[in-house]
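Page 42, continued from yesterday. The earlier attempt failed because a stray header line got pasted into the input along with the sequence. Redoing it now with the clean sequence only.
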Amino acid sequence: MSASKEKKTRQQLREEGKDKRQIAQEKIERAQKRRHRRQVVVGVIAAVLIVALFIFSSNLPYTTLSALTIGETGYTAAEYSFFYNLTYNNFVNQYGDYLQYTGLDTTKSLSSQQYTEDQTWAQYFQEAAQASMKEMTALYDDAIKNGFELSEEDKTSLDSTITSMQSGYTDAGFTSADAYLAYIYGKGCTVKLVSSLVEKYYIAQSYATEKNDSLTYTGDQLKAYYEENKDNLDQYKYIAYLVDGSVKDDSSADSADVSASPDAAASPSASPDTDAAKAAAMEIAKGIADSIVANATTEEEFKQAVLAQTLAEATESTTQGSSLNDKYADWLKDASRKAGDTTVVETDSGYYAVYFISRERADYKTANVRHILIKTVAGEDGTYTDEAKATAKQKAEDLLTSWKAGDATEDSFAELATASTEDSGSQATGGLYENIAKGQMVAEFNDWCFAEDRKIGDTGIVYGERAASSAESSDGYSGYHIIYYSGTGITNSDTLSEDELRTKDFTAWKDALLANYEIKTGLTAALVK
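This time it went through. C-alpha coordinates are written below.
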Protein backbone atom coordinates (compact mmCIF):
# COMPACT_ATOMS: atom_id res chain seq x y z
CA MET A 1 0.00 0.00 0.00
CA SER A 2 1.40 3.43 -0.98
CA ALA A 3 2.16 6.03 1.71
CA SER A 4 -0.51 8.39 0.41
CA LYS A 5 -3.15 5.61 0.34
CA GLU A 6 -2.24 4.45 3.85
CA LYS A 7 -2.46 8.07 5.08
CA LYS A 8 -5.87 8.41 3.47
CA THR A 9 -7.06 5.20 5.11
CA ARG A 10 -5.92 6.37 8.58
CA GLN A 11 -7.72 9.64 8.02
CA GLN A 12 -10.95 7.79 7.13
CA LEU A 13 -10.66 5.64 10.24
CA ARG A 14 -10.15 8.72 12.42
CA GLU A 15 -13.18 10.31 10.85
CA GLU A 16 -15.15 7.18 11.70
CA GLY A 17 -14.00 7.49 15.30
CA LYS A 18 -11.48 4.65 15.29
CA ASP A 19 -8.00 4.91 16.64
CA LYS A 20 -5.08 2.46 16.76
CA ARG A 21 -6.29 0.68 19.87
CA GLN A 22 -9.63 -0.02 18.28
CA ILE A 23 -7.94 -1.43 15.19
CA ALA A 24 -5.75 -3.72 17.31
CA GLN A 25 -8.75 -4.91 19.29
CA GLU A 26 -10.57 -5.83 16.08
CA LYS A 27 -7.57 -7.88 14.94
CA ILE A 28 -7.58 -9.77 18.23
CA GLU A 29 -11.28 -10.48 17.99
CA ARG A 30 -10.96 -11.82 14.45
CA ALA A 31 -8.15 -14.13 15.54
CA GLN A 32 -10.22 -15.38 18.47
CA LYS A 33 -13.14 -16.17 16.15
CA ARG A 34 -10.87 -18.20 13.88
CA ARG A 35 -9.52 -20.16 16.87
CA HIS A 36 -13.07 -20.79 18.09
CA ARG A 37 -14.14 -22.14 14.74
CA ARG A 38 -11.17 -24.52 14.70
CA GLN A 39 -11.97 -25.69 18.24
CA VAL A 40 -15.60 -26.35 17.28
CA VAL A 41 -14.54 -28.45 14.27
CA VAL A 42 -12.02 -30.44 16.33
CA GLY A 43 -14.63 -30.93 19.05
CA VAL A 44 -17.19 -32.24 16.59
CA ILE A 45 -14.67 -34.70 15.12
CA ALA A 46 -13.67 -35.87 18.59
CA ALA A 47 -17.32 -36.30 19.56
CA VAL A 48 -17.98 -38.38 16.43
CA LEU A 49 -14.98 -40.57 17.18
CA ILE A 50 -16.06 -41.06 20.78
CA VAL A 51 -19.60 -41.98 19.72
CA ALA A 52 -18.26 -44.37 17.08
CA LEU A 53 -15.92 -45.97 19.63
CA PHE A 54 -18.80 -46.34 22.08
CA ILE A 55 -21.08 -47.86 19.45
CA PHE A 56 -18.56 -50.43 18.21
CA SER A 57 -17.50 -51.38 21.74
CA SER A 58 -21.14 -51.94 22.70
CA ASN A 59 -23.77 -54.33 21.41
CA LEU A 60 -25.38 -51.83 19.07
CA PRO A 61 -23.68 -52.96 15.82
CA TYR A 62 -24.60 -56.54 16.71
CA THR A 63 -28.24 -55.90 17.52
CA THR A 64 -29.39 -53.02 15.33
CA LEU A 65 -27.85 -53.45 11.87
CA SER A 66 -28.60 -56.23 9.39
CA ALA A 67 -25.76 -58.72 8.87
CA LEU A 68 -27.69 -61.12 6.66
CA THR A 69 -30.87 -60.92 4.65
CA ILE A 70 -32.39 -64.29 3.78
CA GLY A 71 -35.39 -64.00 1.53
CA GLU A 72 -37.26 -61.09 3.09
CA THR A 73 -35.98 -61.71 6.62
CA GLY A 74 -33.13 -59.69 8.08
CA TYR A 75 -30.80 -61.06 10.74
CA THR A 76 -28.51 -59.04 12.96
CA ALA A 77 -24.88 -59.91 13.65
CA ALA A 78 -25.95 -61.23 17.06
CA GLU A 79 -28.44 -63.62 15.48
CA TYR A 80 -25.89 -64.68 12.89
CA SER A 81 -23.31 -65.12 15.65
CA PHE A 82 -25.66 -67.42 17.55
CA PHE A 83 -25.90 -69.86 14.64
CA TYR A 84 -22.19 -69.52 13.86
CA ASN A 85 -21.13 -70.42 17.39
CA LEU A 86 -23.83 -73.07 17.71
CA THR A 87 -22.47 -74.73 14.55
CA TYR A 88 -18.92 -74.51 15.87
CA ASN A 89 -19.81 -75.88 19.32
CA ASN A 90 -21.78 -78.77 17.82
CA PHE A 91 -18.85 -79.63 15.58
CA VAL A 92 -16.39 -79.66 18.47
CA ASN A 93 -18.70 -81.72 20.68
CA GLN A 94 -19.44 -84.18 17.88
CA TYR A 95 -15.81 -85.04 17.25
CA GLY A 96 -14.70 -84.90 20.89
CA ASP A 97 -11.36 -86.67 21.33
CA TYR A 98 -11.09 -87.16 17.57
CA LEU A 99 -11.15 -83.42 16.87
CA GLN A 100 -7.40 -83.33 16.28
CA TYR A 101 -7.85 -85.53 13.21
CA THR A 102 -10.02 -82.88 11.55
CA GLY A 103 -7.12 -80.41 11.58
CA LEU A 104 -8.97 -77.87 13.74
CA ASP A 105 -7.03 -76.28 16.61
CA THR A 106 -9.42 -74.71 19.12
CA THR A 107 -6.61 -72.69 20.70
CA LYS A 108 -6.04 -70.67 17.53
CA SER A 109 -8.08 -68.16 15.56
CA LEU A 110 -10.41 -69.87 13.09
CA SER A 111 -9.56 -67.24 10.50
CA SER A 112 -5.88 -68.22 10.65
CA GLN A 113 -6.49 -71.92 9.97
CA GLN A 114 -7.18 -73.49 6.59
CA TYR A 115 -10.07 -75.94 6.28
CA THR A 116 -9.25 -76.47 2.63
CA GLU A 117 -6.79 -74.79 0.30
CA ASP A 118 -9.41 -72.16 -0.58
CA GLN A 119 -11.35 -71.88 2.69
CA THR A 120 -10.51 -71.10 6.31
CA TRP A 121 -12.25 -72.77 9.23
CA ALA A 122 -14.02 -69.48 9.96
CA GLN A 123 -15.40 -69.44 6.41
CA TYR A 124 -16.44 -73.08 6.73
CA PHE A 125 -18.50 -72.37 9.86
CA GLN A 126 -19.90 -69.17 8.36
CA GLU A 127 -21.07 -71.11 5.32
CA ALA A 128 -22.56 -73.89 7.45
CA ALA A 129 -24.35 -71.38 9.71
CA GLN A 130 -25.80 -69.51 6.75
CA ALA A 131 -27.05 -72.77 5.22
CA SER A 132 -28.74 -73.66 8.50
CA MET A 133 -30.32 -70.20 8.76
CA LYS A 134 -31.53 -70.36 5.16
CA GLU A 135 -33.23 -73.70 5.73
CA MET A 136 -34.78 -72.53 8.99
CA THR A 137 -36.08 -69.33 7.40
CA ALA A 138 -37.65 -71.10 4.43
CA LEU A 139 -39.31 -73.77 6.57
CA TYR A 140 -40.48 -71.25 9.16
CA ASP A 141 -42.01 -68.96 6.53
CA ASP A 142 -43.86 -71.88 4.94
CA ALA A 143 -45.02 -73.10 8.34
CA ILE A 144 -46.50 -69.71 9.24
CA LYS A 145 -48.01 -69.38 5.78
CA ASN A 146 -49.83 -72.70 6.27
CA GLY A 147 -50.97 -71.96 9.83
CA PHE A 148 -48.70 -74.53 11.49
CA GLU A 149 -48.49 -74.50 15.29
CA LEU A 150 -46.29 -76.42 17.71
CA SER A 151 -47.87 -79.36 19.52
CA GLU A 152 -48.05 -79.28 23.31
CA GLU A 153 -45.28 -81.86 23.42
CA ASP A 154 -43.06 -79.68 21.22
CA LYS A 155 -43.84 -76.62 23.33
CA THR A 156 -42.75 -78.49 26.45
CA SER A 157 -39.57 -79.60 24.72
CA LEU A 158 -38.92 -76.03 23.54
CA ASP A 159 -39.31 -74.63 27.06
CA SER A 160 -36.96 -77.29 28.38
CA THR A 161 -34.34 -76.49 25.73
CA ILE A 162 -34.45 -72.76 26.44
CA THR A 163 -34.22 -73.34 30.19
CA SER A 164 -31.27 -75.66 29.69
CA MET A 165 -29.42 -73.18 27.47
CA GLN A 166 -29.60 -70.35 29.98
CA SER A 167 -29.17 -72.35 33.18
CA GLY A 168 -25.92 -72.82 34.99
CA TYR A 169 -24.64 -69.28 34.55
CA THR A 170 -23.89 -68.90 38.26
CA ASP A 171 -21.83 -72.11 38.30
CA ALA A 172 -19.92 -70.76 35.30
CA GLY A 173 -19.11 -67.58 37.21
CA PHE A 174 -21.48 -65.18 35.45
CA THR A 175 -23.79 -62.68 37.12
CA SER A 176 -26.63 -63.09 34.61
CA ALA A 177 -27.96 -65.46 31.99
CA ASP A 178 -27.53 -62.72 29.35
CA ALA A 179 -23.80 -62.47 30.08
CA TYR A 180 -23.50 -66.26 30.01
CA LEU A 181 -25.20 -66.57 26.60
CA ALA A 182 -23.16 -63.70 25.19
CA TYR A 183 -19.97 -65.49 26.28
CA ILE A 184 -21.03 -68.72 24.55
CA TYR A 185 -22.72 -67.38 21.41
CA GLY A 186 -21.31 -63.87 20.97
CA LYS A 187 -22.11 -60.22 21.62
CA GLY A 188 -25.75 -59.28 21.71
CA CYS A 189 -26.97 -62.81 22.43
CA THR A 190 -29.45 -62.40 25.26
CA VAL A 191 -32.07 -64.69 26.73
CA LYS A 192 -34.75 -62.88 24.73
CA LEU A 193 -32.87 -63.11 21.42
CA VAL A 194 -31.79 -66.73 21.86
CA SER A 195 -35.28 -67.80 22.97
CA SER A 196 -36.78 -66.22 19.87
CA LEU A 197 -34.33 -67.99 17.54
CA VAL A 198 -34.75 -71.36 19.25
CA GLU A 199 -38.54 -71.07 18.99
CA LYS A 200 -38.23 -70.25 15.30
CA TYR A 201 -35.95 -73.22 14.79
CA TYR A 202 -38.35 -75.54 16.63
CA ILE A 203 -41.27 -74.43 14.50
CA ALA A 204 -39.24 -74.97 11.31
CA GLN A 205 -38.05 -78.44 12.30
CA SER A 206 -41.42 -79.61 13.63
CA TYR A 207 -43.07 -78.42 10.44
CA ALA A 208 -40.49 -80.31 8.38
CA THR A 209 -41.11 -83.47 10.40
CA GLU A 210 -44.86 -83.17 9.89
CA LYS A 211 -44.35 -82.68 6.16
CA ASN A 212 -42.03 -85.69 5.94
CA ASP A 213 -44.42 -87.92 7.90
CA SER A 214 -47.32 -86.89 5.68
CA LEU A 215 -45.73 -88.56 2.66
CA THR A 216 -47.37 -91.98 2.21
CA TYR A 217 -47.16 -94.72 -0.41
CA THR A 218 -49.28 -97.69 -1.45
CA GLY A 219 -48.14 -101.28 -1.18
CA ASP A 220 -47.85 -101.51 -4.96
CA GLN A 221 -45.63 -98.43 -5.06
CA LEU A 222 -43.33 -99.91 -2.40
CA LYS A 223 -43.06 -103.27 -4.16
CA ALA A 224 -42.37 -101.61 -7.50
CA TYR A 225 -39.64 -99.45 -5.97
CA TYR A 226 -37.98 -102.51 -4.39
CA GLU A 227 -37.93 -104.46 -7.64
CA GLU A 228 -36.35 -101.49 -9.42
CA ASN A 229 -33.75 -100.96 -6.70
CA LYS A 230 -33.21 -104.37 -5.11
CA ASP A 231 -29.50 -104.38 -5.94
CA ASN A 232 -29.09 -101.45 -3.57
CA LEU A 233 -31.59 -102.63 -0.94
CA ASP A 234 -30.52 -106.27 -0.53
CA GLN A 235 -27.86 -107.35 1.99
CA TYR A 236 -24.56 -108.88 0.88
CA LYS A 237 -22.36 -111.13 3.01
CA TYR A 238 -18.75 -111.35 1.84
CA ILE A 239 -15.07 -111.07 2.78
CA ALA A 240 -12.96 -108.34 1.22
CA TYR A 241 -9.30 -108.12 2.18
CA LEU A 242 -7.14 -105.27 0.89
CA VAL A 243 -3.56 -106.24 0.09
CA ASP A 244 -1.56 -103.04 0.49
CA GLY A 245 0.32 -101.99 -2.65
CA SER A 246 1.96 -98.86 -1.32
CA VAL A 247 5.72 -98.37 -1.32
CA LYS A 248 7.29 -99.24 2.02
CA ASP A 249 9.87 -97.04 3.66
CA ASP A 250 12.46 -98.49 6.03
CA SER A 251 10.42 -97.63 9.14
CA SER A 252 7.46 -99.71 7.98
CA ALA A 253 9.39 -102.87 7.14
CA ASP A 254 8.10 -104.69 10.21
CA SER A 255 4.40 -103.76 9.89
CA ALA A 256 1.91 -106.65 10.01
CA ASP A 257 0.29 -106.34 6.58
CA VAL A 258 1.82 -107.07 3.19
CA SER A 259 5.27 -106.11 4.46
CA ALA A 260 4.96 -108.80 7.15
CA SER A 261 4.02 -111.47 4.62
CA PRO A 262 6.38 -114.17 3.30
CA ASP A 263 7.03 -111.85 0.34
CA ALA A 264 8.12 -108.93 2.54
CA ALA A 265 11.71 -109.17 1.36
CA ALA A 266 10.54 -108.39 -2.15
CA SER A 267 8.56 -105.32 -1.15
CA PRO A 268 10.23 -102.20 -2.60
CA SER A 269 11.53 -99.66 -0.10
CA ALA A 270 12.43 -96.93 -2.57
CA SER A 271 11.13 -93.40 -2.54
CA PRO A 272 7.30 -93.26 -2.64
CA ASP A 273 7.67 -90.85 -5.56
CA THR A 274 9.39 -93.42 -7.73
CA ASP A 275 7.01 -94.80 -10.37
CA ALA A 276 9.04 -97.97 -10.70
CA ALA A 277 8.87 -98.63 -6.96
CA LYS A 278 5.10 -98.08 -6.95
CA ALA A 279 4.62 -100.43 -9.88
CA ALA A 280 6.74 -103.07 -8.16
CA ALA A 281 4.77 -102.75 -4.93
CA MET A 282 1.48 -103.08 -6.79
CA GLU A 283 2.76 -106.14 -8.64
CA ILE A 284 3.65 -107.82 -5.35
CA ALA A 285 0.25 -106.94 -3.90
CA LYS A 286 -1.50 -108.45 -6.92
CA GLY A 287 0.54 -111.60 -6.59
CA ILE A 288 -0.52 -111.98 -2.95
CA ALA A 289 -4.19 -111.30 -3.74
CA ASP A 290 -4.08 -113.83 -6.60
CA SER A 291 -2.55 -116.40 -4.24
CA ILE A 292 -5.30 -115.85 -1.68
CA VAL A 293 -8.14 -116.56 -4.12
CA ALA A 294 -6.33 -119.24 -6.15
CA ASN A 295 -7.20 -122.26 -4.03
CA ALA A 296 -9.93 -120.91 -1.72
CA THR A 297 -13.12 -122.81 -2.42
CA THR A 298 -14.67 -122.28 1.02
CA GLU A 299 -15.02 -119.37 3.39
CA GLU A 300 -12.62 -120.98 5.87
CA GLU A 301 -10.02 -121.68 3.20
CA PHE A 302 -10.18 -118.04 2.13
CA LYS A 303 -9.58 -116.85 5.70
CA GLN A 304 -6.69 -119.26 6.13
CA ALA A 305 -5.15 -118.08 2.85
CA VAL A 306 -5.28 -114.46 4.04
CA LEU A 307 -3.66 -115.46 7.32
CA ALA A 308 -0.93 -117.44 5.60
CA GLN A 309 -0.10 -114.70 3.11
CA THR A 310 -0.36 -111.62 5.33
CA LEU A 311 -0.36 -112.82 8.97
CA ALA A 312 -3.65 -110.92 9.37
CA GLU A 313 -7.19 -112.14 10.00
CA ALA A 314 -9.95 -111.52 7.47
CA THR A 315 -13.50 -110.96 8.74
CA GLU A 316 -16.95 -111.22 7.21
CA SER A 317 -18.95 -108.14 6.32
CA THR A 318 -22.72 -107.81 5.90
CA THR A 319 -23.57 -104.65 3.99
CA GLN A 320 -26.58 -103.18 2.22
CA GLY A 321 -26.03 -102.77 -1.51
CA SER A 322 -26.17 -99.00 -1.43
CA SER A 323 -23.23 -98.90 1.01
CA LEU A 324 -20.88 -101.34 -0.75
CA ASN A 325 -17.40 -100.25 -1.79
CA ASP A 326 -17.59 -99.00 -5.37
CA LYS A 327 -14.53 -101.02 -6.32
CA TYR A 328 -16.29 -104.37 -5.98
CA ALA A 329 -19.99 -103.42 -5.64
CA ASP A 330 -20.94 -104.32 -9.23
CA TRP A 331 -19.22 -107.69 -8.94
CA LEU A 332 -21.14 -108.58 -5.76
CA LYS A 333 -24.46 -107.39 -7.23
CA ASP A 334 -24.11 -109.47 -10.39
CA ALA A 335 -27.22 -111.69 -10.61
CA SER A 336 -25.05 -114.68 -11.58
CA ARG A 337 -22.99 -114.44 -8.39
CA LYS A 338 -22.99 -117.63 -6.27
CA ALA A 339 -21.50 -118.71 -2.95
CA GLY A 340 -17.76 -119.36 -3.15
CA ASP A 341 -17.08 -117.00 -6.06
CA THR A 342 -13.84 -115.01 -5.74
CA THR A 343 -12.17 -112.15 -7.54
CA VAL A 344 -9.25 -109.74 -7.33
CA VAL A 345 -9.98 -106.03 -7.74
CA GLU A 346 -7.40 -103.28 -8.28
CA THR A 347 -7.51 -99.99 -6.34
CA ASP A 348 -5.16 -97.01 -6.21
CA SER A 349 -3.53 -98.39 -3.06
CA GLY A 350 -3.46 -102.15 -3.71
CA TYR A 351 -5.66 -105.12 -4.57
CA TYR A 352 -8.78 -106.50 -2.92
CA ALA A 353 -9.18 -110.25 -2.62
CA VAL A 354 -12.95 -110.77 -2.44
CA TYR A 355 -14.98 -113.84 -1.47
CA PHE A 356 -18.78 -113.94 -2.01
CA ILE A 357 -20.81 -115.69 0.71
CA SER A 358 -24.47 -114.83 0.09
CA ARG A 359 -27.07 -112.28 -0.90
CA GLU A 360 -30.11 -111.73 1.34
CA ARG A 361 -33.21 -110.38 -0.36
CA ALA A 362 -34.80 -107.53 1.57
CA ASP A 363 -38.39 -108.70 1.02
CA TYR A 364 -38.62 -110.82 4.17
CA LYS A 365 -40.83 -110.37 7.22
CA THR A 366 -39.27 -108.55 10.15
CA ALA A 367 -39.67 -109.84 13.74
CA ASN A 368 -41.62 -108.55 16.74
CA VAL A 369 -40.38 -109.63 20.16
CA ARG A 370 -40.42 -108.74 23.83
CA HIS A 371 -37.29 -109.22 25.88
CA ILE A 372 -35.83 -108.84 29.34
CA LEU A 373 -32.15 -107.97 29.63
CA ILE A 374 -30.18 -109.13 32.66
CA LYS A 375 -26.75 -107.53 32.55
CA THR A 376 -23.50 -109.09 33.71
CA VAL A 377 -21.84 -107.05 36.43
CA ALA A 378 -18.41 -105.89 35.28
CA GLY A 379 -15.36 -106.14 37.49
CA GLU A 380 -13.29 -103.17 38.60
CA ASP A 381 -11.17 -103.52 35.46
CA GLY A 382 -14.27 -103.40 33.25
CA THR A 383 -14.13 -107.07 32.21
CA TYR A 384 -16.78 -109.76 32.70
CA THR A 385 -15.74 -112.88 34.59
CA ASP A 386 -17.24 -116.31 34.00
CA GLU A 387 -18.62 -116.19 37.52
CA ALA A 388 -20.40 -112.88 36.86
CA LYS A 389 -21.84 -114.25 33.62
CA ALA A 390 -23.06 -117.38 35.41
CA THR A 391 -24.80 -115.22 38.02
CA ALA A 392 -26.59 -113.19 35.35
CA LYS A 393 -27.61 -116.34 33.47
CA GLN A 394 -29.03 -117.93 36.61
CA LYS A 395 -31.11 -114.82 37.32
CA ALA A 396 -32.46 -114.90 33.76
CA GLU A 397 -33.37 -118.58 34.06
CA ASP A 398 -35.12 -117.98 37.38
CA LEU A 399 -37.21 -115.15 35.89
CA LEU A 400 -38.24 -117.27 32.90
CA THR A 401 -39.13 -120.18 35.19
CA SER A 402 -41.30 -117.94 37.38
CA TRP A 403 -43.11 -116.57 34.30
CA LYS A 404 -43.81 -120.07 32.98
CA ALA A 405 -45.25 -121.01 36.38
CA GLY A 406 -47.82 -118.23 36.08
CA ASP A 407 -50.18 -117.24 33.25
CA ALA A 408 -47.33 -117.47 30.74
CA THR A 409 -48.98 -114.96 28.39
CA GLU A 410 -47.49 -112.08 26.40
CA ASP A 411 -49.19 -109.62 28.73
CA SER A 412 -47.67 -111.23 31.81
CA PHE A 413 -44.26 -111.27 30.07
CA ALA A 414 -44.65 -107.54 29.35
CA GLU A 415 -45.39 -106.90 33.04
CA LEU A 416 -42.32 -108.91 34.06
CA ALA A 417 -40.19 -107.00 31.53
CA THR A 418 -41.33 -103.64 32.87
CA ALA A 419 -40.44 -104.73 36.40
CA SER A 420 -37.19 -106.59 35.71
CA THR A 421 -35.43 -105.56 32.48
CA GLU A 422 -32.20 -103.59 32.54
CA ASP A 423 -32.77 -102.28 29.03
CA SER A 424 -33.94 -98.69 29.53
CA GLY A 425 -34.86 -98.40 25.85
CA SER A 426 -37.70 -100.91 26.06
CA GLN A 427 -38.71 -100.89 29.73
CA ALA A 428 -41.61 -98.46 29.24
CA THR A 429 -43.09 -100.67 26.47
CA GLY A 430 -42.86 -103.97 28.31
CA GLY A 431 -39.65 -104.98 26.54
CA LEU A 432 -41.21 -104.60 23.08
CA TYR A 433 -39.14 -104.32 19.92
CA GLU A 434 -41.07 -104.24 16.65
CA ASN A 435 -40.05 -104.70 13.03
CA ILE A 436 -36.56 -105.96 13.80
CA ALA A 437 -34.52 -106.38 10.63
CA LYS A 438 -31.85 -109.01 10.12
CA GLY A 439 -28.51 -107.89 11.48
CA GLN A 440 -30.07 -105.16 13.63
CA MET A 441 -29.42 -106.97 16.92
CA VAL A 442 -26.34 -108.78 18.25
CA ALA A 443 -25.69 -112.06 16.44
CA GLU A 444 -27.17 -114.43 19.06
CA PHE A 445 -30.34 -112.36 19.41
CA ASN A 446 -30.66 -112.11 15.62
CA ASP A 447 -30.19 -115.83 15.03
CA TRP A 448 -32.85 -116.72 17.62
CA CYS A 449 -35.40 -114.29 16.14
CA PHE A 450 -34.96 -115.52 12.56
CA ALA A 451 -34.68 -119.26 13.16
CA GLU A 452 -36.70 -121.08 10.48
CA ASP A 453 -38.92 -122.88 13.00
CA ARG A 454 -39.65 -119.80 15.11
CA LYS A 455 -43.34 -119.41 16.05
CA ILE A 456 -45.51 -117.09 18.17
CA GLY A 457 -45.18 -117.73 21.91
CA ASP A 458 -41.67 -119.21 21.73
CA THR A 459 -39.33 -118.17 24.54
CA GLY A 460 -35.61 -118.55 25.03
CA ILE A 461 -32.49 -117.17 26.66
CA VAL A 462 -29.49 -116.03 24.64
CA TYR A 463 -26.23 -114.39 25.62
CA GLY A 464 -25.31 -111.06 24.08
CA GLU A 465 -22.26 -108.82 24.28
CA ARG A 466 -21.35 -105.57 22.57
CA ALA A 467 -18.30 -103.36 23.00
CA ALA A 468 -18.86 -99.69 23.76
CA SER A 469 -18.85 -97.48 20.66
CA SER A 470 -16.31 -95.15 22.29
CA ALA A 471 -14.33 -94.70 25.49
CA GLU A 472 -16.90 -92.22 26.80
CA SER A 473 -19.96 -94.23 25.73
CA SER A 474 -21.99 -96.49 28.02
CA ASP A 475 -23.69 -98.43 25.21
CA GLY A 476 -21.51 -101.51 25.66
CA TYR A 477 -22.84 -104.44 27.69
CA SER A 478 -22.68 -108.13 28.51
CA GLY A 479 -25.75 -110.04 29.57
CA TYR A 480 -28.60 -112.44 28.90
CA HIS A 481 -31.76 -111.77 26.92
CA ILE A 482 -34.98 -113.54 27.86
CA ILE A 483 -36.97 -113.36 24.62
CA TYR A 484 -40.67 -113.82 23.85
CA TYR A 485 -41.54 -114.11 20.14
CA SER A 486 -44.65 -112.01 19.32
CA GLY A 487 -44.76 -112.73 15.59
CA THR A 488 -43.71 -111.21 12.29
CA GLY A 489 -43.67 -107.52 11.55
CA ILE A 490 -43.88 -105.64 8.29
CA THR A 491 -41.91 -106.63 5.19
CA ASN A 492 -38.41 -105.20 5.46
CA SER A 493 -38.25 -104.12 1.82
CA ASP A 494 -41.39 -102.03 2.38
CA THR A 495 -39.63 -100.16 5.18
CA LEU A 496 -36.50 -99.60 3.12
CA SER A 497 -38.47 -98.54 0.04
CA GLU A 498 -40.67 -96.19 2.01
CA ASP A 499 -37.67 -94.58 3.70
CA GLU A 500 -35.92 -94.00 0.37
CA LEU A 501 -39.02 -92.73 -1.40
CA ARG A 502 -39.84 -90.40 1.46
CA THR A 503 -36.29 -89.07 1.62
CA LYS A 504 -36.27 -88.49 -2.13
CA ASP A 505 -39.64 -86.73 -2.22
CA PHE A 506 -39.04 -84.66 0.91
CA THR A 507 -35.65 -83.52 -0.36
CA ALA A 508 -37.19 -82.47 -3.68
CA TRP A 509 -39.91 -80.50 -1.85
CA LYS A 510 -37.39 -78.78 0.43
CA ASP A 511 -34.98 -77.96 -2.40
CA ALA A 512 -37.82 -76.31 -4.33
CA LEU A 513 -38.65 -74.26 -1.25
CA LEU A 514 -35.03 -73.20 -0.69
CA ALA A 515 -34.65 -72.19 -4.34
CA ASN A 516 -36.77 -69.12 -3.59
CA TYR A 517 -34.37 -67.85 -0.92
CA GLU A 518 -31.20 -65.88 -1.50
CA ILE A 519 -28.64 -64.87 1.13
CA LYS A 520 -27.35 -61.31 1.04
CA THR A 521 -24.62 -60.15 3.43
CA GLY A 522 -24.57 -56.78 5.15
CA LEU A 523 -21.75 -54.68 6.60
CA THR A 524 -21.91 -56.23 10.09
CA ALA A 525 -21.59 -59.80 8.79
CA ALA A 526 -17.83 -59.25 9.02
CA LEU A 527 -18.17 -59.07 12.82
CA VAL A 528 -18.95 -62.79 12.92
CA LYS A 529 -15.73 -64.79 12.70
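Notes: The two ends are 68 Å apart (CA to CA).
Reminder to self: strip header lines before submitting.
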